[in-house]
Design brief:
Layout (H helix, E strand, L loop, with lengths): L2 H4 L19 H10 L2 H4 L19 H26 L9 H13 L9 H14 L1 H4 L7 H8 L3 H9 L10 H7 L28 H11 L13 H24 L5 H12 L5 H6 L3 H26 L1 H5 L7 H4 L3 H16 L2 H29 L5 H7 L4 H9 L4 H13 L3 H11 L5
Helix pairs in contact: 2-5, 4-5, 4-12, 4-15, 5-10, 5-12, 6-19, 10-11, 12-15, 12-18, 13-15, 13-18, 19-20, 19-22, 19-23
Protein name: Deoxyguanosinetriphosphate triphosphohydrolase
Keywords: Hydrolase
GO molecular function: dGTPase activity
Length: 441
């Protein structure tokens, strides 16, 4: 792989720049398009880990995405500065700010495909097709590869789908789409090697396979075994930004909510800060917010430095597709991050209020899918029913129109329904479920 192709500002099916401004690069336009998009705004009411408490502020998917983007920009700029020196030919068309803008845009979009109710939402959508009689009834109406998509809902693949849906008009650059795709392989992949970080999950559905093939071809990503490709190098920085933020900030939220004591939080972060941690200064600092803010900023700074160093040390291997690890798994603070993760699982992710909202998701999302998948099937087969005619009116016009454009295609109908349900906010999903089940009017 080479950086000149990897930094392509071209857009799919659009070879020339449209409306580009000298003061705003194509990659900065990507960032702006994402932040003003409807799917991004909905992240403000999607659970990160905790349902929103009354007593203090904790992170939503939206604030998490903004923070990951900020860390991603720093990682991109720092790596870009050295890469520009190593590859002088890039200076004719690019700068370190382009590296930062690409990683920032891809990081900003990294959670767009996540459904309501956190990661439990992904499992509940998958379980509907795997275990629910209504979901299982579609098994014989789709191909093997399409069925794998349905029984393994994946937020990363849903995000790639959202970024390429015409209705949102995002039309991002090839570089940003490449950096966004952390798992450049499909759901049905018998040769999958989960020891490789890039094959741990999957990054696109069958409905977007040709889109990704076009992206990979234009960027000259290296084709690997089966239907898989090498990662875009900047995807490693997007992944690192996410890993850094959820490790540190989920711990911060847990401390704010009293799930982990401040003293234990300090001890956990001391494995990252080491001699930079001034315990005496912490004692004279007033207020929990200020103390946590200082610890967070210092910890993130240390991890940015470490991950950038590892990325640059392995640049040649990454370009040759001979590197396939998470940067945080190789950094010198990996043991400290592992300990934070273990404690977070035990004391934060399994806290009662977290388990309660996940349990709600396992009831609400399959309930919505049961009714709306049946509605979509009635529409596709032109069946008349008072119940499903009424439910049809609750679907967005673009969903109804899209199903109508592909008569007889069960898979694409189901994809549209899953788009709708997974795109709901937590509150909207709960409200809609109560209404169609007759619990509230």
């Amino acid at each position: 792989m080479n950086w000149l192709r990897l930094l392509s500002s071209a857009r799919l099916n659009q070879r020339s720049e449209q409306g580009s401004l000298p003061s705003r690069s194509a990659f900065e336009q990507d960032y702006d398009r994402i932040i003003f998009s409807h799917p991004f705004r909905k992240l403000q009411d999607k659970t990160q880990v905790h349902p929103l408490p009354e007593q203090d502020f904790v992170h939503t998917r939206l604030t998490h995405s903004l923070e990951v983007s900020s860390v991603g920009r720093s990682l991109g700029k720092r790596a870009g500065e050295v890469i520009m020196q190593r590859h002088p030919a890039l200076k004719d068309n690019y700068s370190l700010f382009d590296f930062g803008a690409i990683v920032a845009a891809a990081s900003l979009a990294h959670d767009l495909g996540n459904p309501p109710f956190g990661h439990a939402g992904e499992d509940s959508i998958s379980d509907f097709f795997r275990e629910h009689p209504q979901g299982q009834a579609f098994r014989e109406k789709v191909s093997e590869a399409e069925w794998e998509d349905l029984i393994k809902f994946e937020g990363n693949a849903q995000g790639f789908r959202i970024l390429n849906k015409d209705e949102y008009g995002l039309k991002l650059t090839l570089a940003t789409l490449g950096a966004f795709t952390k798992y450049p392989c499909p759901a049905l992949f018998p040769e999958r090697d989960k020891k490789k970080r890039s094959q741990k999950k999957f990054g696109f559905f069958q409905s977007e396979l040709t889109h990704f093939e076009s992206v990979a071809g234009e960027l000259q990503l290296i084709r690997q075994q089966g239907p898989s490709w090498s990662r875009h190098p900047l995807a490693y920085l997007v992944e690192a930004a996410d890993d850094i933020c959820y490790s540190i900030i989920d711990l911060e939220d847990g401390c704010r909510l009293g799930l982990i004591s401040f003293d234990e939080t300090v001890e956990l972060l001391s494995g990252i800060l080491r001699d930079k941690l001034d315990r005496n200064k912490l004692k004279v600092t007033t207020g929990l917010n200020e103390k946590l803010g200082t610890l967070r900023a210092m910890s993130i700074g240390v991890l940015i430095d470490s991950c950038t160093e590892i990325f640059l040390a392995h640049e040649a291997e990454i370009l040759d597709a001979k590197f396939d690890h998470a940067l945080t798994d190789l950094c010198e603070f990996k043991d400290a991050l592992k300990l934070i993760s273990d404690v977070s699982v035990k004391k934060i992710y399994r806290a009662r209020h977290v388990v309660e909202i996940e349990a709600s998701g396992h009831q609400i999302l399959p309930g919505l899918l049961e009714e709306f998948c049946k509605t979509g099937e009635h529409l596709m087969l032109n069946r008349r029913s008072r119940k499903y005619d009424n439910l049809l009116l609750l679907l967005p016009e673009e969903v109804v129109a899209a199903i109508g454009r592909h008569p007889g295609n069960t898979y694409l109908m189901l994809r549209q329904i899953v788009d709708f349900v997974s795109g709901l906010t937590d509150k909207h999903a709960l409200s809609l479920y109560r209404k169609i089940k007759g619990i509230s009017l």
